[in-house]
Every structure is written in C-alpha cells, then in structure tokens.
Amino acid sequence: MSYCAAIRGNAGVGEISRIETAQIKAARIVLRCPRDISIVEQHRVLAWSPVKDIIAISVLHFFYNLQAQKRPKYLQGRFQQVKERHLHSTRAANTDDYVLPGTRLVPGERMFSHRAVKLWDSLPRTIRSLP
User: Which among 9, 17, 97 has a CA at the least distance from the CA of 54?
Assistant: First the structure.
C-alpha cells in the first residue's frame, strides 16, 4: 500500500476509494472475519493505517527530506517559506510556514506541491522543528 503513496495522492476520490475497498477486502480475507466487524477494529488488529493516512505520511516524509536538503535542488526551488516572500516583520514571517501555491480547480489542490505545503503547515511547530 505504501509503494509510491506520495504520487498516488494525486488520484481522485473515486480512485482512492477503490484502493480503500481493496484494503478492506484484504483485511477481511487475512482475518477471516464477517462484514459486520468494524474496519477500524480490523485495522487495529492488523496494525494497518487507512489509505489516506498512508498517503499523508508519505507526502510529509518526502517533504521533510526535501526541506532537510536531502532531495534535488530543482524540487527545493518550488517551495517558498513565508519569511522569504517579503522583508516585513509580521507574525506569519516569524513562523516556518510555507507559501501555499494558489490553485483555481480541485485537480490543482491534489498536486504534490499544494498537498505537501498544506499538510506541513498543519503540523504542530514542535513536530516540524524536530531534527
């Protein structure tokens, strides 16, 4: 499930729903349980994460490596921190937030650059500052 999860995140709702359905069916086969058992309970027993969480973790891991300069420079140039955008001393400029790329349509919101910044900025600052 986690293979290329950061890329798979660009999929639409229907495609992610099909992956989740396959994961649910696999859990039922592995556990040999009926349909009335909660999928949350099945995930807990198997120590599996939901597909959306797997995708989010993969995107955040890739973005962390990008920020820590473990990825190519051409990708690093696509992301800009708020404090680099202007020289004014504002509350936003004193944070480590990134500028969220503007999009006009829903497919633009599924792009890696948009999802990564949105997920990264939603993390607590204590987690973002870990080495």
Answer: 9
Note the pLDDT of residue 17.
86
Asked if 119 and 100 touch (Cβ cutoff 8 Å), the reply is no
pLDDT by residue (tens digit) across 57-76? 888 888 888 877 776 777 76
What residue spans define the domains of the chain? 5-128
The reported pTM is 0.69
- Could you say which DSSP state residue 11 is in? S
Q: What is the 3-state secondary structure (H, E, C) of 26-89?
A: HHHHHHCCCCCCCHHHHHHHHCCCCHHHHHHHHHHHHHHHHHCCCCCHHHHCCCCEHHHHCCCC
